[in-house]
Hints:
This protein is an alpha/beta fold. 37% of the residues lie in helices and 22% in strands. The site of zinc ion has 4 residues, from loops.
Amino acid sequence: MSRPADWSRREFLAYGSILGWLPFFRPKRISLAGATFRIIRNGASKRRYLLIHGNEETARQVLTRHMEAHEGIAYVIQNHTRTVAVDTGQLDPNRMFSRVGAEASLRRLNRDWSPERVQSALHELDRRREKLVRALLPPPSGLLIALHNNSAGYSVTNEEAISDEKSIREPDNPHAFFLCTDPNDFRLLSTSAYNVVLQQHAPKEDDGSLSRLAAARGMRYVNLEVGLGHTERQKEMLDWMEWTLR
Length: 246
Ligand SMILES: [Zn+2]
């Protein structure tokens, strides 16, 4: 076996592309700013899963168990706080998917930062964002599923006004809902007894969340929200969605 230095460029590139298919060489983690995601792989499927807020421990537990019995790739944030570290400050990781969203989050969470410091953090995010986005994007016709937990400050009522369509079957339980970007997924999800909203068109205001990016890129995306601590409810809705969406 020759050393890499002796290989032709073509051989090296060909071998490099094969390495990506071998489990041994597949990365176990991927990062953007202070957000590091553990990658859980199970079989071959076009499903992708994401836990982005480290303090949403119910969603973490439900997703980690789910991956033992379902095929796909899950990205699970490693830290256990809602925000992640950037430079000397903090950033909401679900605001880092656009420059404008990240800028608003950085300014809000780091009031003592100079404009230069904000710009330098944004530059770093701009340089590395696409690598994470490419990893999270499912293959064509695939589906990305993000799990979240909420509390008193947020529910489906916050999303109704900016949604294209809604099906509110559980008005007394607004904390449990699906948010999706694909009209066909909405049609199927709204046959359930759960709350569902469709946000197919990216709203004018880009908050830097993954749901806005998914809408802007025409990606099939489903956000599954339940109140923190409602483990059985989140598991039930995730299982129902797995059976219903193809
Ligand atoms: Zn969240």
